[in-house]
Design goal:
- The structure is a single chain.
- This protein is an alpha+beta fold and 131 residues long.
- It folds into two domains: 44 residues; 76 residues, no CATH class.
- It contains three helices and eight strands, in the order βββααβαββββ.
- A five-stranded antiparallel sheet has the order 4-8-7-6-5. A three-stranded mixed sheet has the order 1-3-2, with no helix packed on it.
- Strand 7 and strand 8 form a beta hairpin.
- The longest helix is centred in the middle third of the chain and has 19 residues.
- The protein is rod-shaped.
Length: 131
């Protein structure tokens, strides 16, 4: 079957973009079957997202730190940021900037938490965000 060409119901000689096997198929057909199409697209997407993995990892770690502080009842009060940094928190991750309705202060939003740094950058306050 090594040199055999598959007949899939079309008059056009094609080469599968996934595995390179030759087959006869429709004019616009690029893959032998849907499994090959899915595999090809999954590999293509994995290559595109490879650059984002380190950023997502930092975001996930920072979120977990914020979530642990929330579970320990430490929301709404100023704490030293060095304590969070020791646990893996990164204040420089890409986040959304939101403004507090109460006092107009700017917070960085990471999923369902928002945090604000003190003027001198040594302390942090964390709030739970209700969208």
């Amino acid at each position: 079957m090594e040199n055999e060409i598959l007949q899939l119901g079309g008059p056009h000689l094609k080469e599968c973009k996934c595995c390179g096997i030759e087959f006869y198929g429709r004019r616009n057909q690029k893959f032998v079957n849907t499994a090959h199409k899915a595999q090809y697209n999954n590999e293509k997407r994995a290559l595109k997202t490879e650059k984002l993995k380190p950023i997502f990892k930092r975001m996930r770690t920072s979120y977990e730190v914020l979530n642990n502080y929330a579970k320990n009842g430490k929301l709404g009060r100023w704490m030293y940021i060095t304590d969070l940094i020791k646990e893996g928190f990164d204040a420089n991750i890409p986040t959304n900037l939101i403004k507090s309705k109460e006092d107009g202060a700017e917070y960085y939003k990471l999923l369902d938490y928002a945090y604000r740094l003190s003027e001198d950058g040594t302390k942090i306050i964390i709030q739970k965000v209700n969208d």
